[in-house]
Amino acid sequence: MARPRPGRGYRYGRWRGGPDPLAPPYDLGSAVDEIGDSVLGGSGVREALRELLRRGMDGRRGLDELRRSVRERLRQARTAGRMDGTLQEVRELLDRALAAERRELFPDPDDLARLKEAELDALPQDTAGAVRALKEYDWASAEARQTYDQIQDLLRREVLDSSFANMKQALQNATEQDVQAVKDMVADLSQLVDAHNRGEDTEERFREFMEKHGQFFPDDPQSVDELIDSLARRAAAQERMMAGLSPEQRAELADLMAQTMSDLGLASEMAHLQDALRQARPDLPWGQRGQVPDGEQGLGLGDATSAVAELADLEALSNQLSQGYAGASLADVDEELLEQALGREAVDDLAALRQMERELERQGYLNRSDGKLELSPKAVRRLGATALRRVFAKLDATGRGEHDVADAGAAGELTGSSREWQFGDEQPLDVVRTVRNAVLRTAGDPHGDGDRRVRIAVEDFEVVETERRTGAAVALLVDLSYSMALRGTWGAAKSTAMALHSLVTTRFPQDAIQIIGFSSTAQVLKPETLAELSVDTLQGTNLQHGLILARRFLARHRDAEPVVLVVTDGEPTAHLEEDGTPYFCWPPMPETIARTVAEVERVARSGATLNVFALDPEPGLVHFVHDITARAGGRVFTPDSERLGEYVVADYLRTRRGRRAR
Fold first, then answer.
1. What is residue 16's predicted lDDT score, i.e. its pLDDT?
2. Which residue of 31, 142, 357, 479 is 20 to 30 Å from 301, comparing CA positions?
């Protein structure tokens, strides 16, 4: 990018002001077309975008594949091991210590040995009670004492490891100074979390804490929020791990943990820290029973907590990737969890999906209004063109198309006059007047270079005037009743409506078109509304109301050739009462049929042609549509849904050719 230098012109260097302004735009063509395929198939815009994000594109995994990989990791994590590993190991060490002690006492004839044996016989049956009762016991066997000390060391390391990851390794062969360092860390940590909960500025205090106690946090949190998030998630996982044990196991393990914390002098401090973490992150699933591992190998208390935390993270990540909840967004997906579960490449796949979603909005294909996602007019035009292109491809394949209009004029005889060309005019050019206009425009140009060639500009064009310049007024009535979805014809009807709208507005702009949807009532549909529309779940096929709206539209275009096209899969089952209230009845009641037929005759008296495209061969429908088209001088077509667009567009083009031929 160039920067001016006083007196020395410009200097060029690397652009450092953000994204490269000269970079080619993100290619969204295939993304828009895929969304269009879903929309034209009957989906709404939000559903179509979600479907694209689930599938992925351009060699990138979509949300579905990412979620499948996460679910596989979740399945593996569930088999990590049993959660009672620490309790089982304590029991085994306790049994070993008691056996060694009894071996030492058995040959001793002293009464003191008998008293010790009696004391051992009276130990509580539960492991935690036995460990507590032996705390002050005077061991006769050195091996037994050493084994009991292993129990104490194991509990100290496992209990702290369940609250602070990797503490088990840090406290291996710990000295009194090491234990005191842990106590100091917990005290300072409680004060730090309390200050954070009070809303104080803890940035400096956090730095001092990490300088003093950073060796206990190998994951190296970069802020007090990261530190609290990590500790709170682990504390919540510890609660879920305990909730996943049997009542007997839970009681024994809780007793052992309480004894250990009391021996370390940390009981009250850890209880306070737990409460502070809960206050700092109340949104975590505290105390809830979640998924727990259930494998062959017993897990230590710290490893079991880590396994439960991993299961919770994977379950949350799977839910985020499902996007199946209200207000779901790709921003919800936790990149850190995704990278931990599937690696950096998965984060890159997610970033590509996010970029595509952003670019669809930035480049004007999607609009977000009041949180609702909608297709922009730009995207709707592309969808209409796509639908039309597919229809013409089928017309060409069947040889029924003839959609290239050879004559360039509208209906009517030449008047001998001409007028200025306007966009969409089909009249032939008046070549003489067009060239004359160009000559007159350039003759007096004071900046001419002596070149005498005539250059024709847009404003020079004139077309031959005809007696009649008006075109056709087309009312396309589309059935929106729920039966259209049940029969799988709604997507074809939507695609057909968009194709016809695109054809009329782009190739025959002097024609007018209105799309009218009807179910229990009727409504005029803009292309943007039609693209987002799903079929109506309300019952009723109110063709009468649709024809009323069609007549109003035709009345605004009295000089145009009136054409009414109806796409439906059922005979009328609803009508408007005198007060405008819709009334539904199945099977159709005589009044519904009578009111609909009366409206058909009003359409016929307006001079309109009424053609019906019946999508169901049901005899009642076939009889009805043949009756009304006979009254209005129209025809009945019975295409299958895949050829509906082909029939409707071909019929419109045939109507135009017939009108010009008269």
1. 61
2. 142
Which is nearest to 85 in space by CA: 76, 74, 93? 93
Nearest to 485 by CA among 22, 42, 27, 149: 42
Q: Whole-angstrom Cα distance, residue 147 to residue 156?
A: 14
Spatial neighbors of 185 by CB under 8 A, at least 6 apart, are 212, 213, 216
CA dihedral (41, 42, 46, 48) in degrees, to 10, reads: -10
For the chain, what is the mean pLDDT?
80
Q: Quote the CA–CA distance of 606 and 548 in Å, as a whole number.
A: 12
Q: Which residue has the higher pLDDT, 447 or 125?
A: 125
Q: Exposed e or buried b for every residue in 371-398, given b needs 16+ CB within 10 A?
A: eebbbbeebbbbbbbbbbebbbebbeee
- 399 sits in the region (left: phi over 0; alpha: psi -120 to 50; else beta) called left
| Measured distance CA(571)–CA(619) in Å, rounded | 10
Supply 574's token pair: 């609803």
At residue 190, φ and ψ (nearest 5 deg) are -60, -40
CA dist 611 and 600 (Å) reads 11
Report pLDDT for 466. 60
Q: Six-digit token pair at 648?
A: 């409707």
Residue 551 pLDDT greater than 90, yes or no: yes
Among candidate residues 57, 49, 56, 61, the one with its CA nearest the CA of residue 346: 61
- What six digits make up the tokens of 253? 């393990």
pTM of the predicted structure, to 2 decimals = 0.58
CA distances from 68 to 245, 291, 357, 595 (A): 29, 18, 22, 55
Task: State the pLDDT confidence band at 403, using cuts at 50, 70 and 90.
Answer: very low
Q: Which stretches of 460-560 are DSSP H helices? A: 482-486, 490-507, 527-532, 543-555
Show Cβ contacts of residue 62 under 8 Å, excluding neighbours closer than 6 positions.
52, 53, 54, 55, 56, 349, 353
Tell me the sheet residues that pair with 12: 2
Query: Cα–Cα distance between 413 and 523 in angstroms, integer?
Result: 38
Cβ–Cβ under 8 Å, residues 412 and 467:
yes
pLDDT digits (tens, 9 = 90+) for 598-617: 999 999 898 888 888 888 87
Max Cα separation, the chain? 140
pLDDT at 36 over 60: yes
pLDDT band at 409 (very low <50, low <70, confident <90, very high): very low
Most confident of 153-157, 371-375, 464-468, 515-519: 515-519
**Distance between CA 614 and CA 640 in Å, rounded?**
9
Residue with tokens 């080619």: 24
Interatomic CA distance for residues 74 and 313, integer angstroms: 9
Amino acid type, 292: V
Tokens of 278: 């809960």
Q: What is the mean pLDDT of residues 221-240?
A: 87
Give per-residue pLDDT as tens, 114-133. 898 898 989 888 888 888 88
Query: How far apart, in whole angstroms, are the C-alpha atoms of residue 50 and residue 67?
Result: 14
Contact assessment for residue 321 and residue 65, using Cβ atoms and an 8 Å cutoff: no
For 7: left if phi > 0, alpha if psi spans -120 to 50, otherwise beta; the answer is left
